[in-house]
Specification:
Elements lengths: L1 E2 L5 E7 L6 E7 L7 E11 L1 H8 L10 E2 L4 E8 L11 E4 L2 E3 L5 H4 L10 E2 L11 E5 L4 E2 L6 H4 L5 H12 L6 E5 L4 H12 L3 E6 L2 H10 L3 E4 L6 H7 L9 E4 L5 H9 L5 E4 L12 H6 L3 E4 L5 H12 L7 E5 L3 H9 L6 E5 L3
Parallel strand pairs: 12-13, 12-15, 13-14, 15-16, 16-17, 18-19
Antiparallel strand pairs: 1-6, 2-3, 2-5, 4-6, 4-10, 4-19, 6-7, 7-11, 8-9
């Protein structure tokens, strides 16, 4: 193992029990195994899924105690004896997909997020709300040195996730894509990725403040679900031919938008589910779904190629994640703001404070 000078202890936010709170305290710094790297995490984005982990309201059981987080951007400070493709001092990102078997049916067809042996950062293994985090070298994101680590952190989950969702939708340049939950951490990036691909974006969210940001980021139309008297009609009217959008990304954390999507999507349209409200069922009329040949699908996090592509959009200056930085010690306060639905863009925690 090659190392730089590394402390024995570090500051971290630790979840001891479901529903928290998280505890800001010192924990040991681990050494990487033969195929692992140790990353000095400088910044970590705070994802809405971190809040689901806190409340334990997803079907997959999280380890406890747990260091959450899976949008960590930092510097490689140690590597195992088998690691040759990463050097000390390289920029690296720790994302949700911490490791997979790399040899199952799914891994072999570049669907490694579907691997049954996948380990998830900040869920089944300790994540990035700490100053030093372990990850499998094969799965860390390679971050170019000309990227700012605080700014790139949200790309490592939010960016990759929506970029993958757009690819799964099959929407093409000049076509219409609806982004539901357009002002959140994922939605604000989805607008930008879609615009960078030449796609027309119809943003759905609530409130004038959110409208201003969505239009600034590149949405051609904003539909306010708080004031719209007929959301389905308003979405269809936003398309030039009135037939409705070609695809929609549902990033919402409440059930209703999932039920509305098949009503405004055009024939042969694609509904892509990304948001995962707990205990929510998706229903659609079978007759209408068949007759109009609608596709309904889920989209999970991206693979390693998706990761590299999503970061390259960012490196070229085509994507900017609206974010604000707070100290790692303030994570519980960030969770409270998220629970109140007051987040615009993304929070990024600075592990040094």
């Amino acid at each position: 193992m090659t190392t730089t000078e590394i402390p024995k202890e570090q500051w971290a936010q630790v979840l001891e029990a479901i529903n928290g709170p998280v505890t800001y305290k010192k924990i040991p710094v681990r050494e990487p195994g033969p195929d692992e790297v140790l990353v000095n995490v400088k910044y970590s984005g705070v994802c809405h899924s971190d809040l689901h982990v806190l409340h334990g309201d997803w079907a997959l059981e999280a380890k406890l105690p747990l260091v959450g987080g899976h949008e960590g951007a930092g510097i490689v400070v140690a590597r195992g004896s088998l690691v040759t493709e990463l050097d000390i001092g390289d920029y690296a990102g720790i994302k949700l997909m911490n490791s997979t078997c790399l040899d199952c049916t799914y891994c072999n067809q570049s669907d490694e997020p579907l691997c049954e042996k996948a380990q998830l950062s900040g869920y089944t293994v300790d994540g990035t709300f700490q100053q030093y985090a372990i990850a499998k070298a094969a799965h860390v994101a390679r971050i170019p040195k000309d990227c700012k680590l605080d700014a790139v952190a949200p790309i490592l989950c939010a960016g990759i996730t929506v970029y993958k969702g757009i690819k799964e939708s099959g929407v093409r340049p000049g076509q219409y894509l609806v982004v539901v939950g357009a002002d959140g951490g994922l939605g604000s990036l989805a607008i930008q990725y879609a615009r960078a691909m030449g796609i027309e974006v119809i943003a759905i969210d609530g409130g004038d403040e959110k409208k201003d940001l969505c239009l600034k980021l590149g949405a051609s139309t904003y539909v306010d679900f708080l004031t719209s008297k007929n959301l389905v009609a308003d979405v269809k009217a936003a398309t030039a031919d009135g037939l409705g959008p070609h695809a929609t990304l549902i990033l919402a954390v409440s059930p209703k938008p999932f039920q509305q999507a098949t009503e405004y999507i055009r024939a042969r349209g694609v509904v892509v589910c990304i948001g995962m409200p707990p205990n929510t069922m998706f229903s659609a009329p079978v007759f209408d779904t068949v007759l109009r040949m609608i596709t309904i699908k889920g989209s999970y996090v991206g693979n390693r190629l998706d990761t590299a592509e999503a970061i390259e959009f960012f490196r070229k200056g085509l994507i900017h994640a609206p974010y604000q930085t707070v100290g790692l010690s303030k994570l519980q306060e960030v969770y409270k703001i998220m629970e109140e639905g007051k987040v615009i863009g993304r929070y990024v925690v600075d592990t040094s404070r």
